[in-house]
Design brief:
The protein has 3 domains: 122 residues, no CATH class; 55 residues, Orthogonal Bundle (Arc Repressor Mutant, subunit A); 271 residues, Rossmann fold. Helix 6 packs across helix 12 and helix 8 packs across helix 12. It is α/β, with parallel strands linked by helices and 495 residues long. About 4% of the residues have low confidence. It contains 12 helices and 23 strands. Strands 12, 14, 15, 16, 17, 20, 21, 22 and 23 form a 9-stranded mixed β-sheet that branches. The chain has a 4-stranded mixed β-sheet with strand order 2-1-4-3, with no helix packed on it. A 3-stranded antiparallel β-sheet has the order 7-19-18, with no helix packed on it. A hairpin with a 7-residue loop joins strand 3 and strand 4. The N and C termini lie far apart (92 Å).
Length: 495
């Protein structure tokens, strides 16, 4: 009795041009190889490649033209000539078609898992994740010390704090601090601490407790970093700034609370419409499936016996989703506009910030937005951003941030692990991570404030703190979207 038909992974050449070759890789049920010496059109691989079949005949395959790919993933490889040792960079494109039995929600994870398996072999070219940062001694410079002070703003930092963080000599740090003081960029506080000098802002008041004011504000805007404060200030008129050295605010007389600043985006390697890029803005919003939370904090992540993770979380949601509803309306309107309102506010903010010489709030060049996929413990590979489908109604415009509505997440354990962060984001629907603002969110709810929203301009693909180049622009983008929401709110009543 002859062999039965069996399912194989079949590679069929489709077409070849002077600068590209197209192969179709698909599961097919094949007849057994021809017997009696007749040549077969297929070559069945063995050994490590068992299960792969190469179709020697380039049959007329038209599936690609008739049915567009359901997903697409591009990446770059470097090829090394064995004869000359010369490196050549080439681009690869994977297009995916799925069986009808696989749901649309499962398709992206299957495609990404296939890609990870494809590039797993040891000889595949790769780079080490964060290799430019991990294990590298950071040089002590005036700019770096100023960066650390601004990152801690409004809280002051001491020489001991800085020395512990990077292992620098205290005397060397003091010399840099003196330079910054002479330039008027920082000032000394009590107990040997230093903080940023806020230029051109005479309304900043440093307080131990939030004051009781005769004319109560209706909106509170909370930022964590200095560049975030500058971005917000460029948007707001008739403002008063109170700096308090804790992470917890007091909101008894405030109706609406905005947490505005930078964050890390969750990339979608295959779906253009779900992909978050640097300079985009994520607004905390419930997932389409429930209204349980807009902000989720991961306390711990433990792997179960079956290999899945159990996440201990705290989930937060404002009792009133009015601000989220305004954001959804703005996003929908922007799909039919060529110039959404927050783009106007970004341009106005840039004009107001033109004298801020320490920070460049302009958008960095698009080519600096590099996307990597984790394929191992510390290995990553650079991939291309997904391209817009022909029928996309919300195509990206240079210099204009796209807004996304999704939960914002945080948690130190998941923020530091690329693959764990992706798993967490997928399970909870998060599209951005920030540097642990859960204590502030808890304080807002503890003070019975019903309306709050977290707005994160995307500065990196971690938690917003890793790539300084994009932080000012991302902060400005977040502040611009904040102003668009505020301007769309109903005016306050006189009572």
């Amino acid at each position: 009795m002859g062999e039965k038909t069996a399912e194989h992974i079949v590679m069929t050449p489709k077409c070849k041009t002077s600068n590209s070759t197209t192969l179709i890789i698909e599961r097919q049920t094949l007849e057994p190889p021809a017997e009696n010496g007749n040549e077969s059109n297929v070559h069945v691989a063995g050994g490590d490649h068992k299960g792969i079949v190469i179709n020697k005949q380039a049959a007329a395959v038209t599936n690609g033209e008739v049915c567009p790919a359901q997903l697409c993933l591009q990446f770059r490889v470097f090829l090394v000539s064995a004869q000359t040792g010369k490196h050549t960079q080439e681009q690869r494109t994977l297009q995916f078609w799925f069986t009808d039995t696989l749901s649309e929600t499962e398709q992206p994870s299957i495609a990404q898992e296939f890609f990870r398996e494809l590039v797993t072999p040891q000889e595949f070219p790769r780079v080490s994740a964060d290799e430019a940062i991990m294990g590298q001694v950071i040089e002590l410079t005036v700019e770096k010390v100023l960066e650390l002070i601004e990152s801690a703003y409004p809280n002051p930092v001491t020489v001991v704090d800085i020395a512990k963080q990077h292992g620098w000599e205290p005397l060397d740090i003091e010399a840099k601090l003196k330079e910054l003081q002479e330039k008027g960029l920082i000032k000394a506080m009590d107990h040997g601490a230093f903080t940023r000098v806020v230029h051109e802002d005479t309304q900043v008041q440093v307080v131990k407790q939030m004051p009781t004011m005769a004319k109560q504000p209706t909106i509170a805007i909370i930022t964590a970093q200095y560049c975030e404060k500058l971005a917000v200030d460029s948007m707001i008129e008739n403002k008063e700034t109170f700096v308090r050295y804790t992470t917890v605010g007091t909101f008894q007389k405030v109706d609406f609370v905005f947490l505005v600043g930078v964050g890390g985006g969750v990339p979608h390697y295959t779906d253009y419409n779900k992909h978050v890029r640097l300079g985009d803005v994520v607004i905390s919003h419930p997932t389409p499936y429930n209204n349980k939370y807009t902000y989720v904090y991961c306390e711990s992540a433990k792997m179960n016996e079956n290999g899945n993770y159990h996440f201990e979380t705290k989930e937060y949601c404002p009792p009133n989703l009015g601000l989220q509803e305004i954001a959804a309306t703005l996003k929908k309107e922007a799909e039919n506009e060529t110039f959404p309102p927050w783009q106007t506010y970004t341009k106005e903010g840039l004009e107001n910030l033109i004298n801020q010489s320490e920070h460049d709030f302009n958008a960095p060049p698009p080519e600096s937005d590099k996307l990597y996929m984790a394929i191992g413990e510390r290995d990553v590979i650079e991939v291309s951003h997904p391209t817009a489908p022909q029928d996309s109604i919300n195509k990206r415009t240079d210099g204009c941030s796209r807004i996304h509505l999704a939960p914002v997440a945080s948690g130190r354990q998941i923020a530091r692990d690329d693959q764990l962060r992706q798993k967490f984001a997928s399970r909870f629907g998060a599209l951005a991570f920030d540097a642990e603002m859960d204590a502030v969110v808890e304080s807002i709810l503890g003070n019975c404030r019903e309306n709050f929203v977290v707005i994160r301009g995307i500065a990196d693909y971690k938690d917003g703190t890793r790539i300084k180049e994009w932080q000012p622009y991302a902060a400005l983008a977040a502040a611009s979207v904040m102003k668009a929401i505020i301007c769309a709110m109903d005016p306050p009543t006189n009572d």
